[in-house]
Inverse folding.
């Protein structure tokens, strides 16, 4: 699984299959403060990501 | 999108069984793109209707920073307002002068109003106050939010007046409002807790409205992402100094563990407001002895602040 972090860096992991929420928490984020796209499509925290997926984590900037 | 294209491990929309893009943990609802967008817009419309935030003939000026909240506000109001009678929309941007932050959001605001063909004016702090926020805050960064708050309030009042606005719409969302409730409780500030910025104006200033007050920050981010309008903009560099930052972090943790916490805070505020109605002593309206603006003391906050800025 390729994970693209909010700072645009990426990393590979074999953590899947795993829920988005578990993955996000494992990476040190609170699910309420990020949104997640799987292969370019937004998914919910209870969706499952596989090792073949590209997962992008977007941090919600405050203010504005 | 055809259902066959969707992996089985994608939760389904409760309304149509399409692929869900949002899960509301409080209600346990899953919504697809179309039903999520419709839900957000209907909730904003209901907030406006039930609170009479906008009435026929209004000229609503949107305080458009170009950040995510005001961008979503403009997009939603532009979608909703054509169905309402004779309501006009325009936008105003205040340029505080925050290097490395405001340039990007102002560029984003310019692009947005151009796309909607909306009247738009921009007012820099330098024109109104003779300097940028960055310059004013040298050596007093810890006071950033209170200094900026006073100056922005004045700037927005001037902008609304110049535009001939009958309402000034800001992008405050559920997270912002819940944080404010919590902060006012922490400060023991009951009058401010029950004060409503719209009804509080009493003809002194253009009434402010907050149509997104029941839409969470995350919902706004998802709404923008689904419209291809998400911009990865920087956060205000002064935000780290604010009490609000600590409260935001605390409330986010609570909301995550106990979904609905922020809405419950808003409900608490509503109940306290009802209990306090007519019981709190109204502050007499005075006029600042230096600038003549309405205020509660002898000198308004802005004139008091200006003296310290020039030192």
């Amino acid at each position: 699984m390729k994970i693209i972090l909010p700072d645009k860096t990426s990393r590979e992991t074999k953590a899947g299959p795993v829920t988005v929420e578990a993955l996000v928490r494992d990476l040190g984020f609170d699910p309420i403060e990020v949104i997640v796209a799987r292969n370019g499509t937004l998914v919910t925290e209870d969706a499952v990501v596989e090792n073949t997926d590209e997962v992008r984590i977007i941090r919600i900037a405050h203010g504005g | 999108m055809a259902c066959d294209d969707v992996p089985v491990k994608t939760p389904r929309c409760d309304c149509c069984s399409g692929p869900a893009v949002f899960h509301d943990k409080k209600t346990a609802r899953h919504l697809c793109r179309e039903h999520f967008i419709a839900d957000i817009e209907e909730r904003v419309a209901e907030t406006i209707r039930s609170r009479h935030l906008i009435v026929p003939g209004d000229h609503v000026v949107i305080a458009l920073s170009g950040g995510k909240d005001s961008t979503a506000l403009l997009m939603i109001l532009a979608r909703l307002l054509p169905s309402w009678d004779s309501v006009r929309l325009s936008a105003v941007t205040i340029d505080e002068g925050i290097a490395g932050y405001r340039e990007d959001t102002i560029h984003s605001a310019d692009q947005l109003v151009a796309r909607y063909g909306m009247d738009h004016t921009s007012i820099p702090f330098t024109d109104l106050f003779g300097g940028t926020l960055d310059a004013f805050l040298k050596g007093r960064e810890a006071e950033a939010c209170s200094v900026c708050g006073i100056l922005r309030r004045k700037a927005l009042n001037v902008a609304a007046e110049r535009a001939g606005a009958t309402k000034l719409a800001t992008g405050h969302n559920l997270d912002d409002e819940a944080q404010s409730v919590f902060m006012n409780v922490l400060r023991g500030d009951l009058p401010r807790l029950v004060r409503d910025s719209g009804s509080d104006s009493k003809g002194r200033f253009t009434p402010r409205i907050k149509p997104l007050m029941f839409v969470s920050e995350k919902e706004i981010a998802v709404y923008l992402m689904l419209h291809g309008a998400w911009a990865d903009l920087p956060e205000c560099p002064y935000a780290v100094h604010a009490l609000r930052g600590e409260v935001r972090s605390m409330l986010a943790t609570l909301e995550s563990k106990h979904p609905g916490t922020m809405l419950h805070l808003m409900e608490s505020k509503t109940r306290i407001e009802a209990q306090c109605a007519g019981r709190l002593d109204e502050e007499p309206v005075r006029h600042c002895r230096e600038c003549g603006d309405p205020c509660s003391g002898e000198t308004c906050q802005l004139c008091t602040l200006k003296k310290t800025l020039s030192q």
